[in-house]
Predict the structure.
Amino acid sequence: MASKENIRARQLLEELLAALTPTDHEPTPDELRAGYDNWATTNYPTPPELRTEQVDADGVPCVWASMPGTSSERTIFYLHGGGYLIGSPTGYRGLAAALSQAADARVLLIDYRLAPENPHPAAVQDATTAYRWLVKEEADPASTAVAGDSAGGGLALALLTALRDAGDRLPAALVCLSPWVDMSLSAASIDSRAELDPIVSRAMLENMAGAYLMGQDPRTASASPLFADLSGLPPTLVVVGTSEALLDDSTRLADRARDVGVDVTVNIVDEMYHVFPAMASFLPEAREAVEEIGRFVQGRTSRPAVV
């Protein structure tokens, strides 16, 4: 049975949906982005002790985030969600703080370009540029984990397949939170879980996919990495809730990755909603998930040897 705090989690997501779908006008992309960041910073507060620094990753703006006392030798390269239309490091500092603490790591939040102004493959290009900057200037891939939620989870997977195909060194681990990996929207759970999910709907996904793809094939591997060759990817953790329209994206991803030999761990948490680990400031199940992520990252990354 879910904790009593789950009621608050659902209410927060319903408030977000209302903010993103006003009835009196059609919001502009900038209005949607401002509304999302305001909702996130209000409900997922940033600890005052979180240390942040803006950096330029070869033209891609990013934000370093770390909690006091955490290692500077272990890195989480984080790609935010938001359907490729909204989201930014601003709204993800609270989650970054929780991940930094749990994984004993610094977190690099990637501010990749958004649609519809920058359709596919702009996000993949920015993620690739930023990752290459990271491993060139700042971090050993062996001490790095790539992570992302929702669209950012799909983007993380697309990034790793692109890096593998180009011959780049891959990170030591991959973490996907409620990943969206199929823009053809063939997951049965989109409809079967519709009444359970307070935020994600087929109509929302169709709008986001349309804005990102701009007429491109929705089964293109770099946009829908469920259909990519997943062989050779690092150990992967997938975290998802049972009350999610995108539940089947996670389970199908895990099955396809295992079929080609990827070490995959899947944590399906009862009665949890989309990207519930972001609610670690008040939701017990979210805190447990973040702690699991921390253990996973620490267990699969290594600290660089002293030369």
